[in-house]
């Protein structure tokens, strides 16, 4: 393991605003209400960014909405360190992080506690539908975690993942709140879609790839 990566893993393990699954395998001994007892006192809900990477969106949204709370989720501590370190050095109190597998969220997140889920440029998993973060098994998981009326946001450069997600929405009789087929060409695109960019999004935009977005509710239409 490169020295800088090893150093980041050591540091992130000491960050008070980061929870690691390795300390609570399969949620063993974990108090799911620690989010409201330690991090987000005075609140009983928060928002998730899944597969957050360096957490550009977690940080960007938390800065734009200081009265809301955000948790970045990823299994890769080396990347998460970037966002976690930024939150720490900028004294951000509405941000925390969970290093865990997304499929294990129910071990670490209380049911009915999430307002919005953000999925930003995930791996499209072109050969494995089951691993797509908008596949049926994940939608069923999100439904448990979201509050009534809570929504999921997907932003992607993958037309295959986008069309797959629209098909899932139709198949499960879900409700589209907003659909934008070209984020940077549509004048109605909200500021948080234009003003926050991940590293990979920046590369895709420079290459002229179309960025697509959909927000949908898991309440049946």
Pattern of helices and strands: HEHEHEHEEHEHEHHE
**DSSP strand count:** 8
Q: How many distinct folded domains?
A: 1
- What is the typical, i.e. mean, pLDDT? 95
Instruction: Characterize the biggest β-sheet.
Output: 8 strands, mixed
| The CATH top-level class label | Alpha Beta
Q: Any idea what the CATH architecture is?
A: 3-Layer(aba) Sandwich
Structural class: alpha/beta
Portion of residues within helices: 25-40%
What is the fold named in CATH at topology level?
Rossmann fold
Q: pLDDT below 50 for ≥5 consecutive residues: which ranges?
A: none
Radius of gyration: 17 Å
Query: Which percent band covers the strand fraction?
Result: 15-25%
What name goes with the CATH superfamily?
A: Vaccinia Virus protein VP39
How far do the termini sit from each other?
Answer: 49 Å
Number of continuous helical runs: 8
For the biggest β-sheet, the strand order reads 1-4-3-2-5-6-8-7
Instruction: Report the principal-axis shape.
Output: globular
Notes on the protein architecture:
By secondary structure, the protein is an alpha/beta fold. It has one domain (3-220): Rossmann fold (3-Layer(aba) Sandwich). The chain is built from eight helices and eight strands. Strands 1-4-3-2-5-6-8-7 form an eight-stranded mixed β-sheet, with helices on both faces. The longest helix is centred in the middle third of the chain and has 13 residues, at 77-89. The model has no long low-confidence stretch (mean pLDDT 95).
């Amino acid at each position: 393991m490169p020295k800088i990566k090893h150093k980041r893993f050591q540091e992130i393990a000491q960050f008070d605003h980061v929870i690691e699954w390795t300390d609570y395998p399969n949620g063993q001994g974990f108090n799911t209400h620690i989010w409201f007892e330690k991090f987000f006192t005075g609140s009983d809900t928060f928002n998730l960014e899944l597969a957050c990477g360096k957490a550009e969106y977690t940080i960007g949204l938390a800065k734009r909405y200081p009265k809301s709370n955000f948790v970045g989720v990823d299994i890769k501590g080396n990347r998460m360190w970037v966002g976690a370190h930024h939150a720490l050095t900028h004294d951000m109190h509405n941000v925390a992080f969970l290093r865990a597998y997304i499929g294990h969220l129910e071990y670490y997140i209380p049911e009915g506690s999430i307002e919005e889920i953000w999925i930003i440029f995930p791996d499209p998993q072109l050969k494995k539908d089951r691993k797509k973060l908008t596949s049926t098994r994940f939608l069923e998981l999100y439904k448990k975690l979201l509050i009534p009326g809570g929504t999921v946001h997907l932003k992607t450069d993958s037309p295959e993942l986008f069309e797959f997600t629209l098909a899932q929405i139709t198949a499960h009789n879900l409700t589209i709140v907003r659909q934008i087929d070209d984020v940077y060409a549509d004048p109605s695109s909200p500021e948080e879609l234009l003003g926050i960019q991940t590293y990979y999004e920046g590369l895709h935009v420079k290459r002229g790839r179309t960025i697509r977005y959909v927000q949908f509710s898991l309440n049946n239409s």
